Amino acid sequence: MDPHFARYPFFDGARAAVGDADISPAELIAEDAPAVERGLERVERALMEGTVAPEDERRWTDREELLSYPIARILVSLVDTPAAVDKYAAAEAATAHDRLRADFESDDDGLQSTGTRPVSLNDVLREFDLSGDVRPERDGPDGSGGSSARRSGERRPSHYWVDVGAYLTLSTAEWGERWRLVNRELAAGDVRVTDEELRRLLEEAVRRRVAEGLPFSVRGSAAGEEIADALDDEVTALRNLLNDHDAAGRAEVDAVVPGLFPPCMKELVQRARSDESLPAHSEFSLVSFLVALGMDATEVTTLLGADGEAASRMETRVEYLADAEGAQFAPPSCASMQSYGDCVNRDERCETISHPLSYYAGALRDAGEVRDWREALS
Ligand code: SF4
């Protein structure tokens, strides 16, 4: 099996690899195989934390990772709500985005961070039929070299030119003003994008591929009924997760008072404000916490003192986190924060709660009259 399929199970070739594994999802479920547990973790983490990366990378084999993907799709289909599909597809795409960045950097350095050849930009462009649509800047908008002109180990350019049709297909004005065509540099039918913006477009290509065909009908045959019955407990737990986080995330918090944030979030705010580039999981934790307080993109970037590329990235993240129906990704629990190494400076209140939002709700309640930080902005 190509080990890339464990990290990118939505690649076309991964479907054949699942077939070659010689065991059907129904058999995996009947056997309660490890891939079923990993599939459940995949969806749980997608709904709660916006990632499908495992808590413990070493726990699962490549085969289990690969087989967990069709199981996760079955689970999402059985949960059968638009929010579950949206959040699951977004989380698969966000995880792929992080992995692609790591792989591209390894490819630049000629290193093999995953013990196998990293996936290159050319591999991904080919996968999504974009090879003819993206050119590195060094070729210029009229260049004929194409992305395949770049050799492995050669440092990637900071900018690319993307065919306007592909750009318009993958981007949306909802991502913010800077993505609108009128605000872009255009030449010879190509749009100039940064390296990071190109990865954002690829993330969207992944999201669409993952969302395609979801949810599908699982029931409707004897085998389907059996699968659905066997996963009944898991599906109920996932539905409860979706319901819980809406209640936990917004019910008790109606003001933004940074001085009352839990210690972990104060630390992340301070690190972000000092221009540190936070790891993706830390930035997700912080931004999802702020979004759960009802902050919009401008408020988040203002509080964190972000500008330029960092501000754009955070704005995109805020839009991802708060969907059109107002349902939100819950910020990670204290247990997850601990596993990320982001639970720091614990105090007495930390001993009484299991979620940073509960900490903040309690601190707000105890503080009585408070002044909302946002009042100073108006
Ligand atoms: S215990 Fe929870 S609220 Fe307290 S610092 Fe750790 S993660 Fe934050």
TrEMBL record:
Cofactor: [4Fe-4S] cluster
Residue ranges annotated for the DNA primase large subunit C-terminal domain, each copy included: 255-365
Its job: Regulatory subunit of DNA primase, an RNA polymerase that catalyzes the synthesis of short RNA molecules used as primers for DNA polymerase during DNA replication. Stabilizes and modulates the activity of the small subunit, increasing the rate of DNA synthesis, and conferring RNA synthesis capability. The DNA polymerase activity may enable DNA primase to also catalyze primer extension after primer synthesis. May also play a role in DNA repair.
Record GO terms (molecular function): 4 iron, 4 sulfur cluster binding; DNA-directed RNA polymerase activity; metal ion binding
Quaternary structure, from the entry: Heterodimer of a small subunit (PriS) and a large subunit (PriL).
GO CC annotation, single: primosome complex
Extent of Basic and acidic residues compositional bias: 130-141
Gene that produces this protein: priL
Gene Ontology biological-process entries: DNA replication, synthesis of primer
Keyword set, alphabetical order: 4Fe-4S, DNA replication, Iron, Iron-sulfur, Metal-binding, Primosome
Cofactor remark: Binds 1 [4Fe-4S] cluster.
Pfam families: DNA_primase_lrg (PF04104), DNA_primase_lrg_N (PF26466)
Signal sequence bounds: none
Region feature Disordered, mapped onto this chain: 130-155
Designated name of the protein: DNA primase large subunit PriL
Family: Belongs to the eukaryotic-type primase large subunit family.
Binding site for [4Fe-4S] cluster: C264, C334, C343, C350
